[in-house]
Amino acid sequence: QQGHMKLHARSVASSADVPDELFDAVVDELVTSGEIKVWKAAEILEEKRGRSGGQTAAGAAAGKVILLGEHAVVYGKHAVALPIADAVSAEVRSAEQASTVSVPAWNIRDQAVADDASGVGAAVTLILQELGIADSHFAIRLHSSLPRAMGLGSSAAFAVAIVRAFDAELGLGLDNAKINAVAFACEKLAHGTPSGIDNTVATYGEAMLFRRAESLELEKLKLVEPVPLVIACSSQSGLTAEQVAGVRRRRAQSRAQYDAVFEQMDALSLTGAAALARGDYAELGMLMNVCHGLLNAIEVSTPELEAMVSIARSAGAAGAKVTGSGGGGSIVALSPGAVDDVRDALEEAGFLTLGHSKT
Question: Of the candidates 66, 49, 58, which has an alpha carbon nearest to the alpha carbon of residue 86?
Fold first, then answer.
Protein backbone atom coordinates (compact mmCIF):
# COMPACT_ATOMS: atom_id res chain seq x y z
CA GLN A 1 0.00 0.00 0.00
CA GLN A 2 2.73 2.46 1.00
CA GLY A 3 4.68 1.60 -2.13
CA HIS A 4 1.72 2.20 -4.44
CA MET A 5 0.94 5.49 -2.68
CA LYS A 6 4.50 6.63 -3.29
CA LEU A 7 4.37 5.69 -6.96
CA HIS A 8 1.13 7.69 -7.30
CA ALA A 9 2.67 10.63 -5.42
CA ARG A 10 5.66 10.65 -7.81
CA SER A 11 3.28 10.83 -10.76
CA VAL A 12 1.36 13.70 -9.13
CA ALA A 13 4.59 15.58 -8.34
CA SER A 14 5.64 15.25 -11.97
CA SER A 15 2.28 16.65 -13.09
CA ALA A 16 2.80 19.60 -10.74
CA ASP A 17 6.20 20.34 -12.35
CA VAL A 18 8.08 19.92 -9.09
CA PRO A 19 11.79 20.59 -9.76
CA ASP A 20 14.35 17.81 -9.31
CA GLU A 21 15.98 19.32 -6.24
CA LEU A 22 12.66 19.30 -4.33
CA PHE A 23 11.01 16.27 -5.96
CA ASP A 24 11.66 13.64 -3.29
CA ALA A 25 10.83 16.07 -0.50
CA VAL A 26 7.46 16.95 -2.05
CA VAL A 27 6.68 13.25 -2.71
CA ASP A 28 7.40 12.37 0.94
CA GLU A 29 5.09 15.10 2.22
CA LEU A 30 2.35 14.14 -0.25
CA VAL A 31 2.40 10.57 1.07
CA THR A 32 2.45 11.77 4.67
CA SER A 33 -0.49 14.14 4.07
CA GLY A 34 -2.64 11.42 2.50
CA GLU A 35 -3.92 14.07 0.06
CA ILE A 36 -2.14 12.98 -3.11
CA LYS A 37 -3.44 15.68 -5.45
CA VAL A 38 -1.78 18.10 -7.86
CA TRP A 39 -3.04 21.10 -5.87
CA LYS A 40 -1.51 19.67 -2.71
CA ALA A 41 1.82 19.13 -4.46
CA ALA A 42 1.77 22.76 -5.59
CA GLU A 43 0.95 23.90 -2.06
CA ILE A 44 3.82 21.87 -0.56
CA LEU A 45 6.19 23.15 -3.25
CA GLU A 46 5.37 26.78 -2.47
CA GLU A 47 5.76 26.14 1.25
CA LYS A 48 9.16 24.53 0.78
CA ARG A 49 10.34 27.32 -1.50
CA GLY A 50 9.18 29.86 1.03
CA ARG A 51 10.83 28.24 4.02
CA SER A 52 14.09 27.41 2.26
CA GLY A 53 15.09 31.03 1.65
CA GLY A 54 18.76 30.20 1.82
CA GLN A 55 18.41 28.82 5.37
CA THR A 56 18.58 25.12 4.53
CA ALA A 57 21.69 23.34 3.33
CA ALA A 58 21.22 20.17 1.31
CA GLY A 59 23.20 17.16 0.14
CA ALA A 60 22.43 14.17 -2.06
CA ALA A 61 23.68 10.61 -2.49
CA ALA A 62 23.13 7.53 -4.63
CA GLY A 63 21.72 4.20 -3.63
CA LYS A 64 23.29 1.08 -5.08
CA VAL A 65 22.50 -2.15 -6.81
CA ILE A 66 25.10 -4.93 -6.99
CA LEU A 67 25.16 -6.92 -10.21
CA LEU A 68 27.91 -9.36 -9.23
CA GLY A 69 30.00 -10.23 -6.20
CA GLU A 70 27.89 -9.89 -3.05
CA HIS A 71 29.47 -11.40 0.06
CA ALA A 72 32.65 -12.30 -1.84
CA VAL A 73 33.47 -8.59 -1.74
CA VAL A 74 33.65 -8.80 2.08
CA TYR A 75 36.62 -11.16 1.63
CA GLY A 76 38.67 -8.96 -0.68
CA LYS A 77 37.12 -10.08 -3.97
CA HIS A 78 35.73 -7.89 -6.75
CA ALA A 79 32.13 -6.77 -7.13
CA VAL A 80 30.28 -4.85 -9.84
CA ALA A 81 27.81 -2.18 -8.76
CA LEU A 82 25.64 0.53 -10.28
CA PRO A 83 24.27 3.66 -8.60
CA ILE A 84 20.62 4.51 -8.09
CA ALA A 85 21.20 8.20 -8.75
CA ASP A 86 20.03 10.88 -6.29
CA ALA A 87 18.08 8.31 -4.30
CA VAL A 88 18.51 10.22 -1.03
CA SER A 89 18.70 13.90 -0.16
CA ALA A 90 19.31 15.51 3.22
CA GLU A 91 18.50 18.94 4.57
CA VAL A 92 20.30 20.43 7.58
CA ARG A 93 19.32 23.46 9.68
CA SER A 94 20.77 24.85 12.86
CA ALA A 95 18.63 24.11 15.92
CA GLU A 96 18.52 25.72 19.32
CA GLN A 97 17.99 22.58 21.36
CA ALA A 98 18.77 18.88 20.83
CA SER A 99 19.53 17.57 17.36
CA THR A 100 16.61 15.83 15.64
CA VAL A 101 16.20 13.62 12.60
CA SER A 102 13.19 13.13 10.32
CA VAL A 103 12.72 10.54 7.58
CA PRO A 104 9.11 10.98 6.39
CA ALA A 105 9.32 8.03 3.99
CA TRP A 106 10.15 5.79 6.96
CA ASN A 107 7.61 7.42 9.31
CA ILE A 108 10.34 8.99 11.47
CA ARG A 109 9.44 12.56 12.36
CA ASP A 110 11.44 15.02 14.49
CA GLN A 111 12.95 12.24 16.54
CA ALA A 112 15.64 13.33 19.00
CA VAL A 113 18.91 11.90 17.69
CA ALA A 114 19.82 10.55 21.12
CA ASP A 115 16.51 8.64 21.33
CA ASP A 116 16.23 7.40 17.75
CA ALA A 117 16.15 3.61 17.64
CA SER A 118 16.09 3.30 13.83
CA GLY A 119 19.85 3.40 13.43
CA VAL A 120 19.77 6.78 11.71
CA GLY A 121 20.26 8.58 15.02
CA ALA A 122 23.39 6.58 15.83
CA ALA A 123 24.81 7.42 12.41
CA VAL A 124 24.07 11.11 12.92
CA THR A 125 25.80 11.04 16.32
CA LEU A 126 28.87 9.46 14.75
CA ILE A 127 28.88 11.97 11.88
CA LEU A 128 28.73 14.88 14.33
CA GLN A 129 31.70 13.40 16.17
CA GLU A 130 33.68 12.71 12.97
CA LEU A 131 33.14 16.27 11.76
CA GLY A 132 34.01 17.80 15.14
CA ILE A 133 30.60 19.40 15.68
CA ALA A 134 29.18 17.14 18.39
CA ASP A 135 28.44 20.13 20.66
CA SER A 136 26.21 21.82 18.07
CA HIS A 137 22.52 21.14 17.42
CA PHE A 138 20.85 20.56 14.07
CA ALA A 139 17.52 19.55 12.56
CA ILE A 140 18.14 16.93 9.88
CA ARG A 141 15.51 15.87 7.35
CA LEU A 142 16.04 12.99 4.93
CA HIS A 143 14.08 12.25 1.76
CA SER A 144 14.49 8.78 0.31
CA SER A 145 13.19 6.85 -2.66
CA LEU A 146 14.82 3.72 -1.21
CA PRO A 147 12.75 1.33 0.87
CA ARG A 148 14.18 0.34 4.23
CA ALA A 149 16.45 -2.71 4.66
CA MET A 150 16.07 -3.86 1.05
CA GLY A 151 19.74 -4.21 0.13
CA LEU A 152 19.82 -0.99 -1.90
CA GLY A 153 22.34 0.95 0.19
CA SER A 154 19.97 3.21 2.11
CA SER A 155 22.12 3.49 5.25
CA ALA A 156 25.22 4.46 3.27
CA ALA A 157 23.27 6.92 1.13
CA PHE A 158 21.83 8.51 4.27
CA ALA A 159 25.30 8.97 5.71
CA VAL A 160 26.74 10.47 2.52
CA ALA A 161 23.80 12.84 2.04
CA ILE A 162 23.97 14.03 5.66
CA VAL A 163 27.72 14.64 5.49
CA ARG A 164 27.29 16.61 2.26
CA ALA A 165 24.52 18.68 3.82
CA PHE A 166 26.75 19.53 6.78
CA ASP A 167 29.54 20.40 4.37
CA ALA A 168 27.20 22.80 2.57
CA GLU A 169 25.89 24.27 5.83
CA LEU A 170 29.26 24.78 7.52
CA GLY A 171 31.63 25.20 4.58
CA LEU A 172 33.87 22.34 5.68
CA GLY A 173 35.49 21.86 2.27
CA LEU A 174 35.21 18.07 2.35
CA ASP A 175 36.34 16.08 -0.68
CA ASN A 176 34.84 12.78 -1.77
CA ALA A 177 37.57 10.77 -0.06
CA LYS A 178 36.73 12.31 3.32
CA ILE A 179 32.97 11.95 2.76
CA ASN A 180 33.49 8.31 1.84
CA ALA A 181 35.62 7.69 4.94
CA VAL A 182 32.99 9.14 7.28
CA ALA A 183 30.24 7.15 5.57
CA PHE A 184 32.33 3.97 5.86
CA ALA A 185 32.66 4.57 9.60
CA CYS A 186 28.85 4.77 9.74
CA GLU A 187 28.57 1.53 7.76
CA LYS A 188 30.85 -0.25 10.22
CA LEU A 189 28.68 1.02 13.05
CA ALA A 190 25.55 -0.30 11.30
CA HIS A 191 26.79 -3.53 9.77
CA GLY A 192 29.88 -4.66 11.67
CA THR A 193 32.24 -5.74 8.86
CA PRO A 194 30.98 -4.19 5.61
CA SER A 195 32.98 -4.25 2.41
CA GLY A 196 32.67 -0.52 1.84
CA ILE A 197 30.99 -0.87 -1.53
CA ASP A 198 27.72 0.78 -0.44
CA ASN A 199 29.30 3.99 0.83
CA THR A 200 31.68 4.17 -2.14
CA VAL A 201 28.86 3.94 -4.70
CA ALA A 202 26.81 6.38 -2.61
CA THR A 203 29.67 8.86 -2.63
CA TYR A 204 30.87 8.65 -6.22
CA GLY A 205 27.57 7.78 -7.91
CA GLU A 206 29.16 5.87 -10.79
CA ALA A 207 29.17 2.34 -12.14
CA MET A 208 32.22 0.59 -10.77
CA LEU A 209 34.31 -2.50 -10.35
CA PHE A 210 35.12 -2.45 -6.64
CA ARG A 211 37.57 -4.26 -4.41
CA ARG A 212 38.82 -3.54 -0.91
CA ALA A 213 41.90 -5.57 -0.02
CA GLU A 214 44.91 -3.81 1.51
CA SER A 215 43.44 -0.58 0.17
CA LEU A 216 40.45 0.59 -1.83
CA GLU A 217 40.60 -0.39 -5.50
CA LEU A 218 38.04 1.37 -7.63
CA GLU A 219 37.63 1.21 -11.41
CA LYS A 220 34.88 3.45 -12.75
CA LEU A 221 33.09 1.86 -15.68
CA LYS A 222 32.04 3.90 -18.71
CA LEU A 223 28.71 2.61 -19.97
CA VAL A 224 27.45 2.68 -23.54
CA GLU A 225 23.91 3.49 -22.37
CA PRO A 226 21.70 3.42 -19.27
CA VAL A 227 21.47 -0.20 -18.18
CA PRO A 228 17.97 -1.70 -18.61
CA LEU A 229 17.32 -2.86 -15.07
CA VAL A 230 14.28 -3.61 -12.98
CA ILE A 231 14.74 -3.68 -9.21
CA ALA A 232 12.05 -5.41 -7.16
CA CYS A 233 11.60 -5.65 -3.39
CA SER A 234 10.44 -8.72 -1.52
CA SER A 235 8.05 -8.61 1.43
CA GLN A 236 10.84 -9.47 3.86
CA SER A 237 13.61 -7.09 4.90
CA GLY A 238 17.20 -8.23 4.83
CA LEU A 239 19.58 -7.11 7.56
CA THR A 240 23.13 -6.87 6.25
CA ALA A 241 24.82 -7.42 9.60
CA GLU A 242 22.91 -10.66 10.17
CA GLN A 243 23.55 -12.00 6.67
CA VAL A 244 27.26 -11.14 6.70
CA ALA A 245 27.64 -12.76 10.12
CA GLY A 246 25.78 -15.86 8.95
CA VAL A 247 28.03 -16.29 5.93
CA ARG A 248 31.07 -15.80 8.15
CA ARG A 249 29.89 -18.58 10.49
CA ARG A 250 29.24 -20.98 7.65
CA ARG A 251 32.59 -20.16 6.04
CA ALA A 252 34.35 -20.96 9.30
CA GLN A 253 32.82 -24.44 9.14
CA SER A 254 33.56 -25.05 5.43
CA ARG A 255 36.33 -22.63 4.58
CA ALA A 256 37.73 -24.36 1.49
CA GLN A 257 34.31 -24.68 -0.11
CA TYR A 258 33.28 -21.10 0.63
CA ASP A 259 36.59 -19.68 -0.54
CA ALA A 260 36.19 -21.62 -3.80
CA VAL A 261 32.76 -20.01 -4.25
CA PHE A 262 34.23 -16.56 -3.59
CA GLU A 263 37.00 -17.17 -6.13
CA GLN A 264 34.39 -18.06 -8.73
CA MET A 265 32.39 -14.93 -7.86
CA ASP A 266 35.57 -12.90 -8.29
CA ALA A 267 36.04 -14.27 -11.80
CA LEU A 268 32.38 -13.54 -12.61
CA SER A 269 32.80 -9.93 -11.49
CA LEU A 270 35.92 -9.36 -13.59
CA THR A 271 34.31 -10.86 -16.68
CA GLY A 272 31.03 -9.10 -15.97
CA ALA A 273 32.63 -5.67 -15.66
CA ALA A 274 34.00 -6.01 -19.17
CA ALA A 275 30.64 -7.25 -20.51
CA LEU A 276 28.84 -4.33 -18.83
CA ALA A 277 31.26 -1.78 -20.26
CA ARG A 278 30.69 -3.00 -23.82
CA GLY A 279 26.93 -3.44 -23.36
CA ASP A 280 26.95 -7.21 -23.83
CA TYR A 281 23.77 -7.94 -21.90
CA ALA A 282 23.49 -11.55 -23.01
CA GLU A 283 26.81 -12.43 -21.38
CA LEU A 284 26.22 -10.20 -18.38
CA GLY A 285 22.80 -11.77 -17.79
CA MET A 286 24.27 -15.26 -17.91
CA LEU A 287 26.94 -14.25 -15.39
CA MET A 288 24.28 -12.78 -13.10
CA ASN A 289 22.33 -16.04 -13.22
CA VAL A 290 25.42 -18.02 -12.26
CA CYS A 291 26.16 -15.58 -9.44
CA HIS A 292 22.63 -16.00 -8.13
CA GLY A 293 23.13 -19.75 -8.01
CA LEU A 294 26.27 -19.26 -5.94
CA LEU A 295 24.47 -16.87 -3.58
CA ASN A 296 21.77 -19.49 -3.13
CA ALA A 297 24.50 -22.05 -2.39
CA ILE A 298 25.85 -19.93 0.49
CA GLU A 299 22.31 -19.69 1.88
CA VAL A 300 21.46 -16.01 1.47
CA SER A 301 18.49 -16.47 -0.86
CA THR A 302 14.93 -17.21 0.30
CA PRO A 303 11.93 -19.00 -1.29
CA GLU A 304 10.35 -15.62 -2.04
CA LEU A 305 13.50 -14.27 -3.70
CA GLU A 306 13.76 -17.47 -5.75
CA ALA A 307 10.16 -16.97 -6.90
CA MET A 308 10.89 -13.36 -7.88
CA VAL A 309 13.96 -14.39 -9.86
CA SER A 310 11.90 -17.01 -11.68
CA ILE A 311 9.15 -14.50 -12.50
CA ALA A 312 11.68 -12.02 -13.90
CA ARG A 313 13.42 -14.59 -16.06
CA SER A 314 10.13 -15.98 -17.35
CA ALA A 315 9.06 -12.44 -18.32
CA GLY A 316 12.17 -11.95 -20.46
CA ALA A 317 15.03 -10.90 -18.17
CA ALA A 318 18.44 -11.93 -19.51
CA GLY A 319 19.62 -12.31 -15.93
CA ALA A 320 18.04 -11.99 -12.49
CA LYS A 321 19.49 -12.44 -9.04
CA VAL A 322 19.52 -11.40 -5.42
CA THR A 323 21.11 -8.00 -4.97
CA GLY A 324 22.69 -6.95 -1.67
CA SER A 325 23.13 -9.14 1.35
CA GLY A 326 20.01 -11.27 0.83
CA GLY A 327 17.93 -12.99 3.48
CA GLY A 328 15.08 -10.91 2.09
CA GLY A 329 15.55 -7.55 0.43
CA SER A 330 15.60 -7.17 -3.33
CA ILE A 331 16.37 -8.71 -6.68
CA VAL A 332 17.79 -7.06 -9.79
CA ALA A 333 16.75 -8.12 -13.28
CA LEU A 334 18.74 -7.21 -16.39
CA SER A 335 15.97 -6.76 -18.94
CA PRO A 336 17.09 -5.53 -22.37
CA GLY A 337 13.99 -5.00 -24.48
CA ALA A 338 11.79 -6.31 -21.69
CA VAL A 339 11.83 -3.73 -18.88
CA ASP A 340 8.08 -3.11 -19.02
CA ASP A 341 7.25 -6.81 -19.28
CA VAL A 342 9.47 -7.73 -16.33
CA ARG A 343 8.22 -4.85 -14.20
CA ASP A 344 4.59 -5.67 -15.00
CA ALA A 345 5.06 -9.37 -14.17
CA LEU A 346 6.63 -8.62 -10.81
CA GLU A 347 4.03 -6.00 -9.91
CA GLU A 348 1.19 -8.31 -10.93
CA ALA A 349 2.68 -10.86 -8.52
CA GLY A 350 2.45 -8.24 -5.77
CA PHE A 351 6.03 -6.97 -5.59
CA LEU A 352 7.08 -3.33 -5.46
CA THR A 353 9.48 -2.33 -8.25
CA LEU A 354 11.81 0.61 -8.56
CA GLY A 355 12.06 0.41 -12.35
CA HIS A 356 15.18 1.63 -14.10
CA SER A 357 18.47 2.14 -12.32
CA LYS A 358 19.73 5.62 -13.24
CA THR A 359 23.36 5.29 -14.19
Answer: 58
Q: What is the DSSP string of 194-253?
A: --SHHHHHHHH-S-EEEEESSSEEEEEPPPSS---EEEEE-SS---HHHHHHHHHHHHHH
CA gap 31, 147 in Å, rounded: 14
- 63 three-class SS: strand
pLDDT in tens, 52-97: 544 567 899 999 999 999 999 999 999 999 999 888 999 998 888 8
Residues tagged active-site:
198
**Do 330 and 355 touch, CB atoms closer than 8 A?**
no
- Per residue in 295-319, pLDDT tens? 999 999 999 999 999 999 999 999 9
Q: What angle do CA 273, 199, 159 make, to 5 degrees?
A: 155
Is 101 within 8 Å of 109 (Cβ atoms)? no
Residue positions counted in the chain: 359
Name the packing angle between helices 176-191 and 240-253 (round to 10°): 70
Q: Where are the beta strands (DSSP E) in 286-359?
A: 319-323, 330-334, 352-355
